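Hi everyone, sorry if this is the wrong subforum. Our group has a chain we'd like a structural model of before ordering constructs, and none of us has done structure prediction before. Sequence below.
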Amino acid sequence: MATLKDLANRLNKVADKIEAAPSQVAAAFTFALVEELVDRTPIDTSKAMSNWLVSLNDPVLVDMEAYYEGIHGSTYSASKSEVLAFANTILGKKKPGVDLFISNAAPYIRDLENGSSRQAPLGFTQQSLRVARSKLPAIIKKVINDGR
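Answer:
Right subforum, don't worry. Here is the predicted structure as tokens:
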């Protein structure tokens, strides 16, 4: 037979899950957005793609070298794996109330965003954001279902 103490313990667990859910949604959405940005960033040497960095509390404004420098996109898969692994590591440290940032300090990222590459249309970051936003209902549903 359940006691009031058992009920209180169950309610405390539910409250903890409710408090953590927005942070988990933010982390999952951020990961989805980084995936879209990586997939849509024009690639030659992997430098611009390697500069998509997730951070906590403050943006990272450091121009990174390519994880795996290549030519004509030859290192796309290897660099993509590193970008996503790094993002996943940082997002695993996300706590409620901690701000998330996605930054890219490659010196020519604005030129790419403005359509300087034939590989991606003008505004590829906005397109990435639209696609990631379309995934938000599924992300929320997954967080809620996994939280039970």
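For your construct planning: The chain has one domain: 4-146. The chain has a mean pLDDT of 91.
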